[in-house]
Amino acid sequence: MMTGFPGITVSGGLISKVIYRYLDCGDLQHGFARVRCNDCGHEYLLAFSCKRRHFCPSCHQKRVVEFGEWLCMDVLKKIPHRHFVFSIPKMLRRYFLYDRKLLAALSRSAWESLKVFMQQAVPEKEPIPGAVIAIQTFGDFLGFNPHCHILMTDGCFYGNKGMFRVAPPLEIKKLEAIFRHKVFRMLLKKGTTRSLSRSAATSAFFRSYNFASTTLEYVSINVC
Questions:
Q1: Distances (CA, A) of 104 to 96, 134, 135, 190
Q2: b/e per residue 22-58 (b: at least 16 CB within 10 A)
Q3: Which of 186, 182, 177, 187 is closest to 209 using CA atoms?
Q4: Where are the domains of the chain?
Q5: How many CB atoms lie within 10 A of CB 175?
Q6: Paired sense of beta strands 144-153 and 43-47, if any
Q7: Distances (CA, A) of 198 to 165, 191, 193, 194, 218
Q8: What CA–CA distance (Å, rounded) separates 133 from 110?
C-alpha cells in the first residue's frame, strides 16, 4: 500500500505506478527537454510526459490522434468502410475478466465471423475483406464490458489487381448467429464453460440464447 498524497490510498504495483506517473506528467521537476530555435534563438522547456494510455487523458489523446492519422494516411484505402461493434452478454463476461488471454480469442472470433460473412455476401472468386480491430474492456460507466470495435471494408478485394466490390445490404441476424456460434465454440474448446456445459438446462440456454441483447450493431462511414 502506498500513500503519498492527502486522502489518497493506492495499492498494487502496476496501478500505483500508473497513477503516480500520471501525477508527475508534465512536471518540470521530474525531467524536461530544452527546445531551442537555431534561427531566432528562442527556447523553452518541455516537460516529460508519462506516456500512459487510457489513464492520462493528455497522453492517451496524443496516441489516439497519431494512430488515427496513421490509419488514414498509410493503411485505409479510399473505399467505403463500416463500423461494427461486437459485445457479449453479462453472464459470459466473467470468463474474460479472470482470463485476459480470452480477449484475443474473442477478437479472432469476431474477425472470422465477419470474414466468412463478407466472403459469402460478395459474389466474386476468392474475395478478401480488410479490417482493423480494437478491443475495449469497459463501457460508459467504466464497468467491465469486453467488446470489439471493428473498422471493416464495406465489401471485398478480389483478383490480382486489387479490384474492390461493395457488398450488398447485409442481414445482421445471420452475422449474429455466426458470431454466437464461434464464441461458444471457442469457450468450450478452451474448457472455460466445461462445467457449465454439463448442465442440460444451461446447454439448452446456450443453444437458444438470443444475442439481440449483446449489441451487435454497425454504423456505415466513408473514409476520405
A1: 10, 10, 8, 12
A2: beebbeeeeeeeeeeeeeeeeeeeeeebbebeeebee
A3: 177
A4: 12-75, 77-222
A5: 22
A6: unpaired
A7: 45, 12, 9, 7, 35
A8: 9
Q: What is the pLDDT of residues 107-148, one digit of tens each?
A: 999 999 999 999 988 888 889 999 999 888 887 777 888 999
Locate cell 508534465: which residue? 26
Quick check: 145 and 174 in contact, CB under 8 A?
no
CATH class of 77-222: alpha beta
Residue 63: CA count within 13 A, CB half-sphere: 12
Name the nearest CA neighbour of 152 among 161, 144, 140, 164.
164
- How far apart, in whole angstroms, are the C-alpha atoms of residue 131 and residue 31? 40
Q: CA-to-CA distance for 41 and 35, rounded, in angstroms?
A: 10
68-100, pLDDT tens digit by residue?
888 888 888 898 999 999 988 888 888 898 888
